[in-house]
């Protein structure tokens, strides 16, 4: 039996549908964000990155780099093992205190990634609550879906951001049965925001717990970068807040924040925490520096909002099909996997613009798009260059333009 043939055959439909993932080798340039070096087949060339999740450029902030270098010089590179075996490094303890303070919770627990914090956090929390019923938004991230699935418990999927449908499912459940509502504050593919106040109202009325993923919002929204829930005055009403250190905080890792007992129970029972190596001290020191800086500094958030509004305005004026969004996520609809990949390739090879295609399974078939994420460092000339390049690509690929303007944020 030729086992390798199975793997080769699995790649065929991906290639046929132009969903085969090709990774561009991108080398970021410290101090010159959003510029980077693309190591193309013809050699290295400079490009402008328009799709980074390092939303505020904190990955190259002097405080963040300095803290990482200082920690590495002083204590070394690695963590030495799991926290149970290698011990808990001081930088990790300090980071968890900083995150608990950020979200106004008694405790926080750091994982190796945002994916792991959702997958193992949701499943562990649910398993620790007898006969827990999980209620999950239908557009939740794959990591949340896997967390629900790995719990092995009964679940109900409610229509995206539809609180009437959520209430219908809550009302149908046995009144005294424990329930956990799982949702995101900001959905990263469409850029829409959950009705957090109304979800919390339902949770309180039906005696359910709430678990809110703030991955694409922490650092960016709220008075100190706490997220959308803080901006809307609901953070204290949410039982568990999950976030990442790898996006607006520019580092690596994920976390949950909640009550002391909940966090301690997850720490004690979660396989995805117990059996994996801890984050290295330099990574933790860098993340702590970013969190502390963004708690105090408003410039990055204010500039980010202004840049987002500028991009939306310019692209809308050019009649590009920008999907409506009240957040920093700017999706531009293509609606076809092959042309979406072709548009991305043209932008990179001919215009020096790195903007990856978003295809199935990340988004449903027929809704393929380019997902633009401005940063405080995309100046007016870069915005204008992007608009001109997109218009030219749209014409060359015969993609439909919009007949309506999208309001700026």
Topology summary:
Elements: H1 3-16, E1 26-28, E2 35-40, E3 43-49, H2 62-75, H3 90-102, E4 107-111, H4 114-127, E5 133-137, H5 142-151, E6 155-158, H6 163-172, E7 179-184, E8 186-187, E9 192-193, H7 196-205, E10 209-213, H8 228-231, E11 240-244, E12 254-258, H9 260-269, H10 271-274, H11 281-296, H12 299-317, E13 330-333, H13 337-351, E14 353-354, E15 357-358, E16 369-372, H14 380-396
Parallel strand pairs: 3-14, 5-6, 5-7, 7-10, 10-11
Antiparallel strand pairs: 1-2, 2-3, 4-12, 8-9, 11-12, 13-16, 15-16
Helix pairs in contact: 2-11, 3-11, 4-5, 12-14, 13-14
Model description:
Helix 3 runs parallel beside helix 11, helix 4 (114-127) runs parallel beside helix 5 (142-151) and helix 13 (337-351) crosses helix 14 (380-396). This protein is 42% helix and 16% strand. The protein is globular. The longest helix is centred in the C-terminal third of the chain and has 19 residues, at 299-317. A 7-stranded mixed β-sheet has the order 4-12-11-10-7-5-6, sandwiched between helices. The chain has a 4-stranded mixed β-sheet with strand order 1-2-3-14. It has helices spanning 3-16, 62-75, 90-102, 114-127, 142-151, 163-172, 196-205, 228-231, 260-269, 271-274, 281-296, 299-317, 337-351, 380-396; strands at 26-28, 35-40, 43-49, 107-111, 133-137, 155-158, 179-184, 186-187, 192-193, 209-213, 240-244, 254-258, 330-333, 353-354, 357-358, 369-372. The protein has 14 helices and 16 strands. It is an alpha/beta fold.
């Amino acid at each position: 039996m030729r086992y390798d043939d199975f793997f080769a055959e699995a790649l065929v439909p991906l290639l046929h549908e132009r969903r085969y993932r090709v990774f561009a080798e991108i080398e970021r340039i410290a101090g010159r964000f959003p510029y980077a070096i693309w190591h193309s087949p013809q050699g290295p060339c400079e490009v402008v990155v328009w799709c980074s999740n390092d939303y505020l450029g904190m990955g190259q902030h002097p405080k963040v780099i300095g803290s990482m270098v200082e920690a590495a010089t002083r204590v070394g590179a690695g963590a030495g093992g799991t926290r149970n075996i290698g011990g808990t490094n001081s930088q990790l303890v300090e980071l968890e205190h900083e995150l608990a303070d950020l979200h106004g919770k008694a405790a926080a627990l750091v994982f190796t990634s945002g994916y792991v914090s959702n997958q193992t956090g949701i499943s562990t929390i649910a398993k620790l609550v007898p006969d827990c019923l999980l209620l999950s938004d239908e557009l939740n991230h794959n990591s949340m879906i896997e967390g629900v699935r790995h719990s092995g418990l009964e679940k109900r999927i409610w229509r995206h951001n539809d609180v009437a449908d959520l209430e219908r499912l809550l009302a149908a459940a046995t009144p005294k049965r424990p329930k956990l509502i799982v949702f995101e504050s900001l959905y990263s593919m469409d850029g829409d925001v959950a009705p957090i106040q109304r979800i919390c109202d339902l949770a309180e009325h039906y005696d359910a717990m709430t678990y809110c993923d703030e991955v694409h919002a922490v650092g960016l929204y709220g008075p100190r970068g706490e997220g959308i829930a803080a901006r809307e005055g609901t953070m204290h009403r949410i039982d568990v807040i999950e976030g990442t250190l790898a996006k607006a905080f520019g580092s690596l890792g994920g976390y949950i924040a909640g009550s002391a007992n909940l966090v301690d129970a997850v720490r004690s029972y979660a396989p995805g925490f117990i059996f994996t190596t801890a984050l290295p001290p330099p990574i933790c020191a860098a993340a702590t520096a970013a969190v502390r800086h963004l708690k105090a500094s408003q410039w990055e958030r204010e500039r980010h909002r202004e840049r987002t509004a500028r991009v939306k305005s310019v692209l809308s004026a050019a009649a590009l099909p920008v999907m409506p969004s009240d957040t920093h996520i700017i999706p531009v609809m293509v609606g076809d996997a092959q042309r979406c990949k072709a548009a991305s390739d043209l932008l990179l090879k001919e215009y020096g613009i790195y903007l990856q295609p978003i295809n199935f399974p990340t988004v449903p078939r027929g809704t393929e798009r380019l997902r633009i994420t401005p940063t405080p460092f995309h100046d007016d000339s870069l915005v204008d260059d992007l608009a001109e390049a997109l218009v030219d690509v749209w014409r060359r690929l015969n993609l439909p333009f919009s007949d309506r303007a999208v309001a700026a944020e």
